[in-house]
Structure formats: structure tokens, C-alpha cells
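request received
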Amino acid sequence: MAALLEAYPGAQRALFRNYHIGGCSSCGFRPDETLADVCHRNGGLDPEDVMQDVRLAWEQDERMMITPREAKDLVESDRVELLDIRTREEYEAVRIEGARLLDQALMQEMLATRPKDSLLVIVDHQGSRSLDAAAYFAGHGFTNIKCLRGGIDAWSAEVDSTLPRYTLE
Amino acid sequence: MSDDLEARIQAAVQDPQNLGEMSGADAVGTVGSENCGDMLRMWVKFKDDDGRKIIDKATFQAFGCQTAIAVASVATELIRGKTPAEALALSGEELASPLGSLPPMKIHCAQLVEGALRNALAGDEPPRAALAPTLLDQIAPAKKVKIKLQP
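response:
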């Protein structure tokens, strides 16, 4: 599995989105397992079918991305919930108005009570981690989840220059 | 997953039984790690029943898959009135049985509950395989960061 993840960086997201594998430690896999092993202990999945989904992972990831301008239009039309996955320190320093910090309590609330077709946009700092969070929600059945391309940094650059950009040290 | 099973899981998640920490519990068991958002903890209180020690009440807290929450909800009802040995004899699938038969890909959620129960009743530590980082690991933010605002 370690080699698979290295060759296909989006593989883990594809596995969880499609098969509920690799999301948390109860459905995780070991780096030294083979894909065939993991498929076997997850209901006898066909490794070829799984590999097909892994190869399509990039396209699936792309479909989840949304530009800051597109996200702003949705925010203004009040049709979306922004979920911020950054640290509390970052959230308190700089945040998009209306965005909610995704902590464990909110995560559970979302999984338990939100309609699965709710439109959610994941916000991180620079767009590098939001796809993992989106895949986690998708693997729990959410069908309309997006990631802010470039994160809040791109939002600051393209949509709202009053939000200060920042770096992490 | 069948619509019936999905409906039963959703019903259990939206109205979980025995949710929350129990003060004065006789035993506590945990699997997973609270820090990475993937944890299930179970509290158990015993009582005497004509010289037999039986489970009076069990409660749980869970962060993780909603199926695990649903299984914990029904399992804490299922083990009420059983002796520790009787409860320990139940497999994850048996603990989940009030929900129906879980598909293979969801059985690990029941095993999470079984692990917490075993940890509480027998002190058994669930086997900890060295896992590849999970999505939750990737999502969990760094503990402390220092922010430098750009002028």
C-alpha cells in the first residue's frame, strides 16, 4: 500500500470515497499490506475495480474543487456552508465571514444531522489538505462537497483583500 | 448497504442511547485516540443480581464513523443485564445485530465497539497495527502553529 500511495497521491481519498477504506484507524490499512490483502478483508473487492477507481482519483479530486469566485457567489446566494479545517489559532486570526471551524463536535453534528446533499465547501490555508477532508465527508455519503481551490490564501488574493494573508512558522 | 440498514443506522445516530460519560463507572475502556478524532470510549456500571455481577448500565462517547456510534448505541442496550463473561463472549457482529447484518466494509465499526468493551471488561488492549496515516490523521490540524501575518 505504501508504494500505491506513493505512485497515486490521491489513492487514499479514492479508497475512502468509494469503499470506506483508510479514513480512520478502524478502517485503516498497514503500509506493508498489499492492495489484494486490503481488498480481501473488505468484502472481497476486486483489486482491478479498485485500481480503476484509484486511477480516476485525480479526476474525482478535480470535480471537488471550486474557485474562490465561485465560492463567493455561493456564499452570497446563501446556498453553502463553509467549513474551516485550519487550526483554531489560524481561524481566530483570519477567517472568511460565516465559515465555521470544523472541530470534532461539529464533525459529529455534520455526519449525524446534515442532509447528505448539503452543499459544503472545505476551507484550509492553501488548498493542500482540503481534499482529504472532502473525501472523508464523501466517504460518509455526502454528495455535494467542494474544496476551496488555494484555500483562504487564494480567497484573500482573489476575492477579499481585506483578509490578511499569512505564513506559518 | 440496504436501505433498511441505513435507516436503522441513521435512526440510532440521530437518537443514540446511553450517550455520554458516566460518573462513578466501575470500568472504562477506550480504543483509538481522542487527539486524532477517532475514538470510542465506554463506561460500565455493575450491580449485584442474586450473587451474580451483571452489567447495570453502559454508556459511550464516540468520535468517528457514524456506524460505530450506531453500533455503540445498540450494543450498550444489548449488554445490559449480562455478566461480564457473557458480554465478552459477544463478537462485534453480535453487538451490532440489532441493526441487522453489517456489510463487510462496516464490520470494522462494530469491532471498534467490541474493542472498547473488551478494554473495559477485561483490560484487553486492542491490537495496534502500525497503520498508514489515515484521512483523519491528515485532517487533524497541527497542535500549535505560529502565524505571521503579511503586511
